[in-house]
Amino acid sequence: MKYLDIENWNRKELFKHFRTMADPTFGLVADVEVSKTYQLAKEKGDSFFVRYLHACMKAINSVENLKYRIEDDKVTIYDVINASTTVARPDTTFGFSYFDYSEDFEVFNQNYLEEKERIQNSTNLLPPRYSLGCIHSSAIPWVSFTGHKEPFSGNKDNSVPQLAFGKLKKEKEKILLPVAINVNHALVDGYHVGQFFEKFQQELDKID
């Protein structure tokens, strides 16, 4: 973990501009094709959700600006971005997880399963450990949405990317997943979101 040299950053003026806004976040929704990942999960008996979340985390960790966080008046650059996602309980409530990212799917999956077990055996909303070096994500598998809005805490310096994944839909021979992403414009532009979706699709198209 290190700090960004804001004074010599080519986005210095953009950073300052968007920090003056009451709500500097922006979000969009796009479909990604998950046909190969869906088939891979089916063949291996893995959770499809964990498979595509792992691909998502690979993409997040490949985009420099998605690893930036505003802390006080500094911009922290995290070496690794971990995962924080909602985990459902049988009674329809949920808890927030926090677990370490690994490029190795088996390690990542085990980390998730341990958090899932913790949440399903407790009533706690928040995880016992947390860092801003993560993303917040949730699955909304009941609705194939085309728009999405995240709750706003009122903290305009909140800079943890927020993602949501919708209900699968079929288009001819393709299986599509709606993905919403919400980011702080002081740190992230449309270009970086485009990089994320490009890398995410590349990871989803891989067959490991």
From TrEMBL:
Q: What is this protein called?
A: Chloramphenicol O-acetyltransferase type A
Its signal peptide is none
In this protein, the active site sits at 185
- Protein's UniProt keywords contain Transferase: yes
Pfam family of this protein, just one?
CAT
Q: Name one GO molecular function term.
A: chloramphenicol O-acetyltransferase activity
Alphabetically sorted, this entry's keywords are: Transferase
